Amino acid sequence: MMTFRKSLLSTALIAVASTSLLMGGCNGKDKGEHALISAEAAPLGLKSLDEKVFARHFDVAPRTVSDEEANLALKALSMDKESDLTWQSKAGEKGNYVYNNLQFESDEETITIGQAELLGVHMQDGEATFDRVNFEDITVSEDEVSFGIKAISLARPSPKMAQLIMHAIQRADGLDDLDIEIDEGEEMSLGAVSINQVSIKSDEATGTIEQIVWGTDEAFQKGDAKFGNMDFTITDKNDVTTTFSFEGGTARGLNMEPYKKLSKDLKAAGLGQSLGLGSMFGGMNVFAKPYDDFTIGQGTLKNEFFSFDFKGFEGQAKEKNGVTTITQVSKPMTLKLLSQPKSSNGARAFETFKSLGFDSMTFKTSQTQIMDKAKDQIRLENGLFEMEDGFRLNYAYEGEGLAAMVKAAEREEANLNEDTSPAMQMQSTLKSLEALKLQSLKVSLEDKSIVERALKLASEMFGQSPDMLKKQMKMAVMAAPIMAEGKLEKSILSELGSAVVEFVENDGETLTISVNPPKPLSITSLIEAKESNLAPEELGFSASVSEK
After folding, report:
1. Cα–Cα dist 369/327, whole Å
2. If DSSP codes are grouped into helix, strand and coil, which group holds residue 503?
3. CA-to-CA distance for 248 and 243, rounded, in angstroms?
4. Which long-range contacts (CB under 8 A, 24 or more apart) does 204-208 make?
5. Hey, how many other C-beta atoms are within 10 angstroms of the C-beta on 322?
6. Most-buried pick from 234, 280, 369, 430 (CB within 10 A)?
7. pLDDT tens figures, 269-317
8. How confident is the prediction for the chain on average, in pLDDT?
9. Could you tell me if 358 and 346 are in contact, meaning their C-beta atoms sit under 8 angstroms apart?
């Protein structure tokens, strides 16, 4: 016998509803009588960030340091004299030093650095650190793999991060004997990092990465990031060579609060503390915009069997009067199967692809998310996932109580400790989710040949005509409500089944599924629908079919 929670339908409904409340919503007045047709978002026309944006993250003010203090810091960083790490020459004073032709060698690897420049070496609260370090012409050889990096710059590390960086390049056992005590609440941070002209070479792969840059503005807790052109060639054990080319992308105004929170949460997990919803989201403004904008450039993944081309992706977030609007748009992504792979799984995928009648599949997506802090509401509008000459999936949903859920989670988590059983932790999570509520959800699937193609494929697989398959589906739909447990599952399966049958029987129509509860419905109620005897009228589920 099926139960609500174990049925595929209920699992999908709960997953979509839960995700929707973290991502968006729809118009609460729409009761599902009409199909939802999302407006495709226009390209945002964003451009990659100028190099000047990143250069400012590496500016460090000149620091006056006595030789006595600088030498004390150098000794703590093990850069006062040679050890496993050697150098040809060293020059400098008062906290600024240049090392030439550095080398580290062990049984496993060899590292060479053309030059290392340490700026602003000093003591901070009794800990050794520096303001910036620049490495040039780095090579790393390890077994059958070699790396080359033209330049690395690291700016404004916390003391513990500075010690970790220097320890990593000068010990035969790497970080295995790292003797750095990190107190609870102590930060491990880095203001900016730039890695330029990376090359990788091994028997299986060769590749280059033009640049990786990350910088943060501590005053505004904002970050900027860049990933430059990337090209890789990989040959697997079956001598299949795959190439990947990607022109990179940039992100501006990244909200650093979640990243700092994640760092602290991971540290807490390492100290044996549990990570619940309260610790993950507590203290954060969950309605703050995640970034100003980002762009992801075009790329290609290709071998003799398939090619995948994507033209790029972009997003923009705007905030006004406590309302954050986030728009994300993808440019076309195209998958082509070029020849039948040798593996059984690959061969089946190839045959399925061809049986559906596609020489290629082109996809595109877009959506707009709106978060209202004052109303504690999230909604998603004009959600679209489209496959050219296949289908068009339109979606929208609306929810409330995200901030209320976080507060509830913090209260619940305060009562937990390391001895709390998993069952009690789950019960605590469910109590927190009572505050997170679904207001409405609507999904419309427009048929643009996918039904006809799917019936043709099923006919070939099972050796039956499309008409016979339709008859068998009708019988299965009629039987499903009989097997259902409870009024809710029976009602859903009955209405959904009838709509799906009509959708499949008539080409080119649109299947619409709506959830419009008369009052906001908690996610906990959805998860525990069977146990709580959720009534069909409380869910407000409907399924219908409309013509083009």
Report:
1. 6
2. helix
3. 15
4. 204/234, 204/235, 204/236, 205/232, 205/233, 205/234, 205/235, 206/232, 206/233, 207/231, 207/232, 207/233, 207/234, 207/244, 208/232
5. 11
6. 369
7. 444 444 455 455 545 577 888 899 999 999 999 999 999 999 999 999 9
8. 83
9. no
